[in-house]
Design brief:
By secondary structure, the chain is α+β, with helices and mostly antiparallel strands. Helix content is 32%, strand content 17%. The protein has a five-stranded mixed sheet. It is globular.
Length: 114
Amino acid sequence: MRLADCLSRRSDLAAVYYPGLPTHPGHDAARRQMRAFGTIVSFDVGTRARAETFLRSLTIVREATSFGGVHSMAERRARWGGDAISDGFIRFSVGCETTEDILTDVTQALDRAR
């Protein structure tokens, strides 16, 4: 199971943004422009407090503002200002860890942030 699919099944998230999902408004454009969908997924946990708890609770995912490494990374985008997004908006870059390890880490961190 992909991270985007796992997140989309959670009722405690305000939104999940991933153009690889067929219901996403950018899906058709992404399908035309890419051979495979990228590894960036964004989601909204609703509040700044939940976002900060989520980030602190991650054990293998690194908190970072610049993506592109081999490790999974996440950030609370509103921390930096300038974007019209909610305080609970998380941007996540999937790294080379096993899918199971990433899903386990994200799930436990989201559960702690409830």
